[in-house]
Amino acid sequence: MALRVVDGVTPPPVMYDVACRWLDYMADCEDGGVPLVCCWMGRSRSVAMVTTWIALRMGIEFDEALEAVVHQYPQAQVHVALAKGAREFLEQRRSKH
Q1: Which of 32, 54, 83, 84 has its CA 20 to 30 A from that of 65?
Q2: Model pTM greater than 0.90?
Q3: From residue 73, how far is each of 43, 66, 68, 78 by CA, in Å?
Q4: What DSSP letter does each residue of 19-71 carry, written as one string?
């Protein structure tokens, strides 16, 4: 699966939803599927999508999930627009449930 996420632009919530659903699917595969998530530079877009998924799956805030990711991968960064979109998506998602 490939998602076109543009640097510096806040992606629509559906992008985060698609990414999280795909990561859920991969994580729940019986054969132990392990997704490879990457972006051109490998530092912001991929980190934003995976961090959003971690926050959703663990029921924690985006910033808490990001702190854990950065602890494991100090080079990880999230562009402010991607972080904004992630927080908005998580807020929307949680208000529906």
Answers
A1: 32
A2: no
A3: 10, 10, 9, 12
A4: HHHHHHHHHH-TT--------SSSSSHHHHHHHHHHHHHHT--HHHHHHHHHH
